Amino acid sequence: MQLEFFGAAGEVTGSCHILRANGKAILFDCGLIQGGRDAPERNKLPFPFDATAIDAVILSHAHIDHCGRLPLLVKRGFRGPIYTNGACAELVPILLRDSAKLALGDAERANRNLPPGAADKVLPLYDLADVEAALGLIQRIPYDLERELSPGVVVRVRDAGHIMGSSSVEARVSESGVTRRIVFSGDLGQYDTPILQDPYAFTSADVVLMESTYGDRRHRGREETERELGAILEQAARDGGNVIVPAFAIGRSQELLYLLAEHYAEWHVSRWKIFLDSPMAIAASRVYWRNPDRFDEEASRLRESFHGLPPLPNLVLSETGDDSRAINNVRGGAIIIAGSGMANGGRVLHHLKHNLPRPECHVVIVGFQAPGTLGRQLVDHAPEVRIHGQRVPCAAQVHTLGGLSAHGDQQDLLRWYDNFKPPPPVYLVHGEPSAADSLAVKLHARGTSVTVARPGLKVDLASLNSLAGD
Ligand SMILES: [Zn+2]
Questions:
Q1: What predicted TM-score, i.e. pTM, was given to this entire model?
Q2: pLDDT-based confidence at 305, cuts 50/70/90?
Q3: Which pLDDT score, from 0 to 100, does residue 307 have?
Q4: What is the 91 CA–ligand 1 centroid distance (Å)?
């Protein structure tokens, strides 16, 4: 029995790890590599395994860097089951269909730039038919129940508190009379995050695969973040303009709506008209609202006080392009939540074009903005930006709100790990080297054996000490 690291080893995206036991092979995730100029080429490379020889996939959650290469796996011959939690299974189609559309757009753009008569056209990584084939393989597994995936491999998924339907995976692997327990953290949420429950506290394992995205960081406190948002809205109401929030469709959009509901009276939210202007965010929100059994206590109480969901009487769901364009005529009193999260595409661009030149408007940045994106230029207070080829002066007030992250920070990660008794060895995945190294130092200080995983690294599970018992 063996673990092998392939993706999200030494970096954040492309999550994929391989578990082999009793002649069978199971993948933990099969995610897309994102960011970096070479990402499209890297995604196309052959897998270090034969896709037809993979027996099953277990998927931790619906983010594209965890599920985004499943259609490619299917295109290359995988026909086994893809196991995941039910709420995740509802989110995955939204993301994968969008991913196929983006892949097609990328290929078309690349082909337009080819010299005339070029023989080799760029093909998309996969198409909608591959996506539908992958979706057909999904089998839902509930949280907390054991499920045998293949002979000698029994898994159980637990709530990771990261996004709706996110899981940590516990696998009990037996071969030739030897049993080892593996815990794969998946992506771990912050403790006390809105809506979702805290990450499940595992107490024993023989080896842990742990994410390290923010292994070197402390998030700003939640209360401070909420106070700040309340103050921004107060100022914006006095100024009489609109508030534009570029937000990721899954997680951040729902969290913002939740905060507006939670502080409905205190922040006088009724004076605003709130637009959720993103078909993907609307679809994802519906998945959240359909799964109240996964809410934490506060969210459950809030849901009751609003007699169901969506929780805001002044919320407008803008599904169509016409709905979205109609918002352009609104000069003040609107909170507009739209994608993309880094303002490098999507409907938010139109809203920024209309509102950035107006000093009475406000822009609230709620997520990480990668270098080179429009969102980053706004964070850096550029005096002027280009949108759709036009120069747009930035007179609106731009605020950067920390603290609203779907990932736990260093403290959260250590709190999650400290539940294990005795402390099992750790392989750090899903982090830039600086973040993983920083977390490794903290874990070392606890006497833990820590390895920052590299692609191709193999771990012989039988050679590990048995800490968890059978
Ligand atoms: Zn994630």
A1: 0.91
A2: low
A3: 46
A4: 12
Distance 58 CA to ligand 1 centre (A): 15
Mean pLDDT within 11-20: 93
Tokens linked to 128: 């909608």
Q: Which of 77, 120, 122 is nearest to 104 (CA)?
A: 122
Cα of 189 to ligand 1 centre, how many Å? 9
Strand order in the sheet with 167-175: 147-150, 153-159, 167-175, 178-184, 207-211, 426-429, 450-452
d(CA 381, ligand 1 centre) in Å = 28
| 316 CA to centre of ligand 1 in angstroms | 27
Output the CA 65–ligand 1 centroid distance in Å. 7
Q: Which of 25-29, 112-116, 222-226 has the highest mean pLDDT?
A: 25-29
- Token pair, residue 407, equals 């990932």
Instruction: Taking the CA atoms of 248, 72, 70 and 409 in sequence, report the sign of the dihedral they define.
Output: negative
Q: Which of 13-17, 107-111, 194-198 has the lowest mean pLDDT?
A: 107-111
Question: For tokens 């209360």, what's the residue?
Answer: 223
For 15-55, strand residue ranges (E) read 16-21, 24-28
Q: Write the pLDDT tens digit of every residue in 129-141.
A: 999 999 999 999 9
Do the Cβ atoms of 91 and 284 come closer than 8 Å? yes
Instruction: Grade residue 335 by pLDDT with cuts at 50, 70 and 90.
Output: very high
From the list 19, 20, 38, the residue with the least C-alpha distance to 29 is: 19
C-beta atoms surrounding 459 within 10 Å: 20
State which H helix or E strand residue 334 sits in.
Answer: strand 334-338
Distance 334 CA to ligand 1 centre (A): 30
Cα distance between residue 229 and residue 227, in whole Å: 6
Within 8 A by CB and 6+ apart from 70, the residues are 30, 57, 59, 82, 96, 134
pLDDT at residue 34 is higher than 90: no
